[in-house]
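We were asked to recover a plausible sequence for a given structure. The inputs and outputs are reproduced exactly as logged, with field labels preserved.

PROBLEM: sequence recovery
POSITIONS: 328
GIVEN STRUCTURE:
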């Protein structure tokens, strides 16, 4: 059944002259693209889409899939065995060993956009498996500001569990995303659930994103305005942060300096301008989306310094008057 709009609908089914009906409430949801998925299972080892698994002949392993984001519209996996006579996988997520040997299982997401490969060995006794009993996220619920990042960590118990690989997922990547290392990036105001999964067990925390407070300044102003220097000379620029009423304020936000033409004048990270060659260039300072620009006029060329050494005969001027060194 595909929902087209919100409302109530009656579904009927008829078999051998008998009809049954069911009325259900339909809610149309916006499409959520699948960014990726991961698999966990006892004995499943590996990362980055490549896994290994050892199963005794006739054995089975139940896998658990984690989808990112958690509310992705299509959460269906397609299992394909490269040798069904050795191992098979099904839509139920259960891997079944058929006979001794080795074979690959390839797991695709809907549309075959994302895939994982499991290198399966069937035969003998499987390695001793210690299942995961619990997962906890250290620190609990958190509050962040938009554009901030925070790295979460998870504890898997017992400490000697066979499969301790943690997979992270978010309920809404538009509000906050999370990468494979548990680093959460706040996108915009809202609330999300961040989940950590290992060995079929999971834990989650709630992360609340608040809008970052507005900067205390409304503009930035470079002191002194336009100026001129000679090639080879330097000028230290400074800038003030101004509130809406024109009063000077302070902030920890970093200033960024840039020259429009470094062949004429360069500027370093601290606002020190160096004249390079004759011409004009714009020097711009930027902070918190605010900027100001002044024009520097560079005159003349950099002076050329020549080192000259003049030698004098020692017999005429003495042993200690061998040479004279000077610049012109």
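RECOVERED SEQUENCE:
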């Amino acid at each position: 059944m595909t929902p087209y709009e919100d409302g109530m609908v009656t579904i009927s089914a008829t078999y051998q002259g008998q009809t049954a009906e069911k009325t259900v409430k339909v809610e149309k949801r916006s499409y959520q693209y699948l960014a990726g998925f991961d698999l966990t299972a006892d004995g499943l080892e590996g990362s980055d889409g490549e896994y290994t698994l050892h199963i005794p002949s006739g054995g089975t392993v139940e896998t658990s899939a984690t989808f990112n984001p958690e509310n992705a519209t299509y959460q269906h996996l397609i299992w394909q065995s490269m040798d069904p006579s050795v191992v098979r996988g099904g839509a139920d997520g259960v891997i079944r060993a058929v006979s001794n040997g080795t074979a690959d299982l390839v797991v695709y997401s809907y549309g075959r956009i994302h895939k994982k490969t499991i290198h399966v060995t069937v035969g003998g006794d499987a390695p001793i498996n210690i299942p995961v009993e619990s997962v906890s996220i250290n620190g609990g619920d958190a509050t962040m500001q938009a554009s901030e990042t925070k790295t979460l960590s998870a504890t898997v118990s017992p400490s000697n569990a066979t499969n301790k690989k943690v997979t992270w997922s978010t309920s809404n990547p538009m509000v906050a995303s999370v990468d494979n290392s548990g680093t959460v990036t706040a996108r915009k105001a809202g609330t999300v659930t961040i989940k950590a999964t290992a060995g079929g067990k999971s834990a989650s925390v709630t992360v609340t994103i608040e809008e970052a407070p507005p900067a205390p300044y409304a503009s930035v102003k470079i002191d002194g305005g336009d100026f001129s220097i000679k090639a080879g000379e330097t000028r230290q620029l400074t800038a003030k942060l101004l509130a809406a009423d024109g009063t000077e304020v302070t902030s920890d936000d970093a200033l960024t300096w840039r020259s429009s033409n470094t062949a004429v004048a360069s500027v370093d990270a601290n606002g020190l301008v160096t004249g390079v060659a004759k011409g004009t260039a714009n020097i711009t300072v930027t902070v918190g989306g605010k900027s100001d620009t002044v024009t520097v006029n560079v005159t003349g060329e950099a002076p050329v310094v020549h080192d000259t050494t003049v030698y004098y005969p020692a017999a005429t001027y003495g042993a200690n008057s061998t040479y004279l060194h000077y610049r012109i």
